[in-house]
């Protein structure tokens, strides 16, 4: 099972990324031109989550925004699983 | 533009439904067997939203749950647009 990352490892993991730490989670906020584009991104994140068998919270809100929240519930915080998924999301085509 | 519904109309609109009122919104919480089923529902809601050009907040969370939150921002509360979309969501095949 993945272990919760140290504060230091967490800071290093989000450095130079759009992700921020919020409590025991990693959070990404993205804004798009319209709902269709926002939802297309949400779908890509959901597909990656299924592939990784690791499921973030995905919120489509305000018609053009998406918030992705990553955490490993079994570890009570952010693990390497979350960092790996955050990087896969960052690598999505066109993001 | 759609007008905000009266408290009385709102109570009548959610009677005998899974929807609850929360502040100036209508909220539906659904739980599924797995992420794939939860996401399939979220996608159906998103498709209805695009068709209606009325966009609820859609949250996929806790790997198998979906929360849909309806409100009409321009009216500052729940309007007939929200009630109509809630009924379209209720009418989704297999729900």
Automatic annotation (TrEMBL), chains A, B:
Catalysed reaction equations from the record: (4aS,6R)-4a-hydroxy-L-erythro-5,6,7,8-tetrahydrobiopterin = (6R)-L-erythro-6,7-dihydrobiopterin + H2O
Keyword Lyase recorded: yes
UniProt KW keywords: Lyase
GO molecular function term, any single one: 4-alpha-hydroxytetrahydrobiopterin dehydratase activity
GO biological process, one term: tetrahydrobiopterin biosynthetic process
Assigned EC number: 4.2.1.96
Classification via InterPro entries: PCD_sf, Pterin_deHydtase
Broad class of enzyme this protein falls into: lyase
Family: Belongs to the pterin-4-alpha-carbinolamine dehydratase family.
PANTHER family attached to this UniProt entry: PTERIN-4-ALPHA-CARBINOLAMINE DEHYDRATASE
Name of this chain's protein: 4a-hydroxytetrahydrobiopterin dehydratase
Organism: freshwater metagenome
